Amino acid sequence: MVQQSTWMDWARGALRVGVAPVVMGARLAFHDTALDDPEVPEVHDAWSTRAKILLDEIAFATEIASARVLPASQLARASAEQDQAIAFLEEGGYYADPESYHLIPSAPERVVLDRTRHADISYRHLRFESGYEPHAGEPGAERWQAQVPNRTAHAWLLRHRGEERPWVMCVPGYRMGSPIMDFAAFRVRWLYRTLGLNVAVPVLPLHGPRCEGRRGGDGFFTGDFLDTLHAQAQAVWDLRRLIAWLRERGAPAIGIHGVSLGGYTAALLASLEEGLEYVVAGIPAIDVARLMGAHVPGPLQKFTEAAGFSLERIARVMWPVSPLALQPKVPHAGRHLYAGLVDRLTPPDHARDLWVHWDRPNACFYQGGHVSFLFDAGVRQLMLDALRGARFI
Questions:
Q1: Handedness of CA 17, 20, 21, 27 (dihedral sign)
Q2: Fewest beta carbons within 10 Å, which of 87, 284, 324, 335?
Q3: CATH code of the domain in which 215 resides
Q4: What is the number of helices (H) and of strands (E) in the chain?
Q5: Residue 1 covered by a domain
Q6: Closest CA to 82 of 140, 21, 153
Q7: Distance CA 189, CA 186 (A)
Q8: Rounded CA separation 321/94 (Å)
């Protein structure tokens, strides 16, 4: 007898019995990310491009093999909560005014700052009480608040002595949240030592020291979309608390750069927080429902829809934390984004739609994938453009 299962259960089991090469081959053959847009460059069919695609597919297969997913026994509960959440959001007026879903936090009154090191970099480990709470009566709130480690916000701070300098806030992606990954992904040595900027790297909810699972990020994308909603709402709440704290201590200017899930979070923050000098949304995944649609095979989508998880319902649940539901508060000249034309993890149509929503600001659509942003000269140039435009350098 075949037990009821989620699509992730199926995919993970398939990988464990050796079907991974078949799955990857099918995706390489049929998973087309090309954009039909005359303002976006065409994909170059080159061996280097195919190698970058392969890097993404390896990362995808690794994630499928190890991801924590919603157990079949919880499907009915999660589906019912989705219905309750849609009704709650409708009654609260949050579809008509999604910005009102996000309360404005104050700076933390008490923080802990520990001096520590990673390799040759000395930095401060900042901790403070998050203070985030879902709205009264919001579905899933009690379960979300029961995750004790997640109630403490964390960040890595690199600050120069003497006169205050501009701060670059770097928002990590999914599965990040440790200095070894975060410092490499954002070229922290370059920002801090070469360019002489202050750097803050916050840890997203359920990541790094805030996680309860085996890996950082467990619980963010399990298929329990109320948790995903609360995670994104808490992410921007915590970032705004950190920004308020930095401003209280004399930060003259703050810019934000996020990658992947962090790009989504940065784009959302730029639509809520006043006074940011610039925003860079890197390889952003801005639509959770569409992301699920891109990665869930057709037959399994039919199963998940029958279980109550249609893409339309997921999109309704996630609307209050969608950057496409809000208008950016960062001036047009301070908006920047980049995306890989053959990105297999966050397809470039996410970035393209954000680019259009932001009125086509400075953008880099590069010949690469999700992982290869680290090596792309165009991405580095876009970062320099953002910093120079904001007069950080």
A1: positive
A2: 87
A3: 3.40.50.1820
A4: 14, 9
A5: no
A6: 140
A7: 9
A8: 10
Q: Is residue 2 part of a domain?
A: no
Q: Which two tokens stand for residue 79?
A: 């589906």
115 in a domain, yes or no? yes
Is residue 293 assigned to a domain?
Answer: yes
Sign, CA torsion 360/364/368/369: negative
pLDDT above 60 (res 11) = no
| Positions of E strands within the chain | 111-118, 121-129, 152-158, 167-171, 198-202, 254-259, 278-282, 335-340, 362-366
Give the sheet arrangement for strand 278-282, strand by strand: 111-118, 121-129, 152-158, 198-202, 167-171, 254-259, 278-282, 335-340, 362-366
Based on the structure, what is the number of domains in the chain? 1
Bridge pairing between strands 198-202 and 111-118? unpaired
Q: How far is CA 123 from CA 178, 260, 313, 334, in A?
A: 13, 24, 43, 28
Can you give the pLDDT at residue 34? 65
Q: How many CA atoms lie within 13 A of 273 on its CB side?
A: 27
pLDDT in tens, 77-94: 999 999 999 999 999 999
Q: Is 96 exposed, middle or buried (0-12, 13-18, 19+ CB in 10 A)?
A: exposed
* Residue 219 to residue 239: CA distance in whole angstroms: 20
Closest alpha carbon to 389 in 278, 225, 254, 234: 278
Find where tokens 């390799």 sit. Answer: 119
Q: Give the structural domain span for 144.
A: 7-389
